[in-house]
User: Which sequence fits this backbone?
């Protein structure tokens, strides 16, 4: 069930009670208008259907698995849906450590053999590092990688693309 919180203060207290929690996810959602552009990371949403919670002019928002609505800047007094939402994390993409400086590793699971493209993008939608581009067998995979010295301290997006789907996760570079 979607759970609506009464105020932003309680939301912040709940979500940041344990900032090291492995059960907390942040993900980026893009407006449907970005479909087919370099900013299309596969997380498209038609924000015009969120009224009255979010203005129809919204282009992106944060969402959380804690039950907060998309666009956590303001909350609605009335729930517009009680539909249960599920994250599509069947690829089980994880990036460690995160935040990262120097080197780290990316882990993911493939349910079947598939072509894999694992890349890092900047927030302009430009691919800045390709880590894997090959066919891989089903199962768990762990890939070590190093952050190039020319990367500035910023947020990036790690994106795993397979024949069956795509999963993205934020990467914070220190």
Assistant:
């Amino acid at each position: 069930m979607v759970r609506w919180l009464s105020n932003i203060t309680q939301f912040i207290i709940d979500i940041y009670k344990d900032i090291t929690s492995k059960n907390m996810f942040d993900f980026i959602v893009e407006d449907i208008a970005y479909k087919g552009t370099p900013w299309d990371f596969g997380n498209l949403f038609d924000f015009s259907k969120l009224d009255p919670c979010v203005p129809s002019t919204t282009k992106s928002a944060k969402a959380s698995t804690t039950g907060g609505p998309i666009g956590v800047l303001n909350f609605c007094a009335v729930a517009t849906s009680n539909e249960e939402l599920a994250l599509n994390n069947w690829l089980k993409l994880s990036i460690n450590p995160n935040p990262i400086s120097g080197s780290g590793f990316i882990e993911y699971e493939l349910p079947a053999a598939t072509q894999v493209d694992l890349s890092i993008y900047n927030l302009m939608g430009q691919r800045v590092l390709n880590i894997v581009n090959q066919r891989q067998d089903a199962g768990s995979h762990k890939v070590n990688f190093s952050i190039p010295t020319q990367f500035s301290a910023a947020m990036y997006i790690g994106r795993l693309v397979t024949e069956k789907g795509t999963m993205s996760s934020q990467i914070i570079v220190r």
Remarks:
- The mean pLDDT is 69.
- The radius of gyration is 17 Å.
- The first helix runs from residue 8 to 15.
- The beta strands are 26-31, 44-45, 60-64, 94-96, 103-110, 114-121, 127-136, 139-146, 154-161, 166-173.
